[in-house]
Amino acid sequence: MLLAELKEAVVNGDMDEVEVLCNRVLEEKFNPVEAVQNGLIKGIEELGKLWTEGEMFLPDVMMGADTLKLALDILGPELAKAEAEGIKRDVKGKIVIGTVKGDIHDIGKNIVSAMMTAAGYDVYDLGINQDIAAFTEKAEEVEADIIALSALLTTTMPEQKRLVDHLKEQGLRGKYKVIIGGGPTTNDWANEIGADGWSETAGGAIALCDQLTA
């Protein structure tokens, strides 16, 4: 029953309810990994399916992603303990995403972030106007697999190249896959700067990440 309620709370984007339920998980000493895997993640998967079928809208997906994030924040300490004991939940990979320095546009990035979460990735969204150091520091901190850079202005596109160059300078280029996106960007630009991939859409970004983490 608790698992079904957790799933429903995510589908409904009900942050108040998920907070109550996560506290129940802690109070009742329910397996936090099972709560996440068979409750919360099932909810975000269902939400992604409904969005794909046109039965849910983007704001619903983003609310569900925010609800999942809140739940993971609450259960985080217990999840860490469980993982330390060798009990791990299934995660496709870890992605650090953000809009580059000088760019304050975030709608496209938010869509991709929400859909990546729905697709089963741990997503660390840095927000807008982020310096290249913020991406690398977070990637190192969380042991990310992918760094995703959004640029919505032609004037900020060079920041994507700077990140790739910075990784090379730090001897980290081989450690992370770098993907880019944003209105003025193209696949040719991705190839020119040495990124690992580019996508025009959120669905394409997920397929790209699936390919890069396979």
From TrEMBL:
Keyword list, A-Z: Cobalt, Metal-binding
Domain B12-binding residue range list: 92-214
Domain B12-binding N-terminal intervals: 1-87
Biological-process GO terms, alphabetical: homocysteine metabolic process; tetrahydrofolate metabolic process
GO terms of molecular function: cobalamin binding; metal ion binding; methionine synthase activity
Cited Pfam families: B12-binding, B12-binding_2
Protein family according to the UniProt entry: Belongs to the methylamine corrinoid protein family.
The protein's name: Dimethylamine corrinoid protein 2
Organism: Syntrophaceticus schinkii
Originating gene: mtbC
